[in-house]
Structure formats: structure tokens, C-alpha cells
Amino acid sequence: REEALAAVARAVEIRETLVEQRPDAFLPDLASSLNNQSNRLAGLGRREEALAAVARAVEIRETLVEQRPDAFLPDLA
Question: Would you list the domain boundaries of the chain?
């Protein structure tokens, strides 16, 4: 589980860098990675950190829904 968390943490870092360069292309992927990170943290009993990660993912998805609800509303749900 710790190795899985480390891998997803690295994915979040990479996607954050990509978002800085092209947010329009990579924000959805960052939200997905944050959701995965939340799941891994919850699996390790780190609930507060898991909640923070998923809250950030939801915030990103809400922003995406405002821009293109037809494309991103299912992911927010």
C-alpha cells in the first residue's frame, strides 16, 4: 500500500507540473490522480489527508463543470 501511495503521489506531482504548462489539457487528469491519491490514503487510514485530496479533486471538477458541463459533469458525480 505504501508503494502504491508513493506512485500516485508522484503522478500528482507530474500532473501538477503539466497543469502549470497546459491547464486546459491536464486539469482533468490531475483531478483523477488526486482521487486515486485519496483512495490510497484512505486505505492506509490517513483519513484527513484523504479528505483533503478528494476535496481538491472535487474543486477542480467543479471548475471544469462550469466550463463544460456536458463533458465533465459525469466525472463530478
Answer: 2-69
